[in-house]
Amino acid sequence: MKNLDFVAIKGAEDSWVLSQIDGVESHPDGKTIANCDIIGVRKGGTLLGLKTPVKPSSLVYSADKKIIQETLDLPKGGIYLGTLDANKDVPVFVDAGELVSKHLCVLAQTGSGKSYVTGVIVEELLEKKIPVIVIDSHGEYVSLGTENQNPKEIEKMQEFGISPKAYRVREYSTDSRVNPGAEQITFSDKNLEATEIASLFPAKASASQTGVLYAAVLEAKRKGEYNLVDIIEIVGAMEGASKWTVINMLEVVRATNLFTDNPTPLKDIVKPGTASIINLRGASPEIQQVVVHRLVEKLFEQRKIGRVPPLFLIVEEAHNFCPEKEVRMSSKILRTVASEGRKFGFGLCIVSQRPARVDKNILSQCNTQVILRVTNPNDLKAIAYAEGINKSVEKEIRNLSTGTALMLGREVPLFVNVRVKRTKHGGVTVSVTDQKAAVDTILSFDCLEQAAFKKYGKIKKVYYPIWLIKSAGDRFIIDGIKGRLMRHEKGWLAGAPVEFSEVNAARLKSMKDAAKVGYPTKIVTADGELLSFKVLKMDIAGTASAVFGKTALVKEAYYPYFVGQNVMIDGVTGTVRDAG
Question: pTM for the whole thing?
Fold first, then answer.
């Protein structure tokens, strides 16, 4: 037996009393003595402690799976986190409704696996068709759309009874040039507050410049509804030299493309069974603050009136958005969600590598805590508020191995052996000493030489994602972003006016022209921009099997284009079109 193992003794009325080893000591006389914390007996759904002490010399047994499950009230079904670390035959599930309604925090030092554990939780929520929105500072969660292909992890999946799988993911970014394939996230530019506008200025405004901005916003409010253009016009009509600097900075704000009169619909971001990743990689801290503030505020408003379904929001690097000793633009709305979100089905997950720097008002609202290895004394002190952390547990937190997590918030602290992810892990630490050649090979068509199109000026190569379906001589290409059947029309690869998921066998057979596109056979080094798949293999595999039978081959590939400022060229046929 070892520390934290579960043991059982016979109590009154022949009931089994569950205990957990809390420290093992070896004595000079050769004896080994273990101290135990008595957990109790569960009767009528209630965990009862012992009213009388255990008799001396009572026999102690290793607790079996049934006793542990019944006493700890581990539900069957729900969110599958893994197994008990001390008893790996006991699965650990968390009630999904309880997790969403009572909030969660995942705390760990860098490299201890906090993003991995959070990814496991996201997978399970998507299995339950719960909409998930992830504030992702580093672009780690987009890989939820790709099934796990790590041989070692696939082998370990058998221990947990799972298999590789990809989930439906939509990626949004403040700048799709930094994150190719992501959709540009935008917000309404109507009725922006002066503080929001000033936070986006490229430099700190002087007192006189701030005065000009506030005066302009105040005047705009008197006139009713307003937008950025109105603010610029009002500033332009003012007197004084400061206005020109303010106008220049307002034009910089407009150039971020964050605010438009056609904002991203929230109904697209909040969809059952879909993870919407707000990829903030490459965005300045100021823009990140504005995005989180505006998005969470609008989501909460719409959730309160029932215009979006119940959802779960994950905030990675939370210490940047709701710090302990500083009030930032996003702090107030996250505090509001933490304190009031449970009333409206708005779940919150706080993820941080620096618990000491996270607003304690928000952490205290998280009824479930998942804690991985933490060694920093200040961070340990910050999480000590959680019920169930004593000196022994604190020592274990310092020494937790990667892949083991402490879960608090239930009647008894549980050390969990976290299961393997079904999807590819996007948060792998890059080794600076491993300098392998970075070669990105893809399956693509024969492509014309870029030099042949010099007359069109500066152009770049773009690889468009497609799915290939092949069975019994029939070959079809599916648009990897829009999900439509593709075929050549007048030398141009075009989408048929029907989504593949809607077609039936008869309609496919009548669209044999799609096969005339050909079939790519070349593995090439990607020497251009790779657009990301929006339609996943799981989205089309079912239809492919229904139409072609189980022998249908569905394969990932890319179609090349050349894109310039005003021109788009089919990279296979050379057909030119106006980019507009």
Answer: 0.74
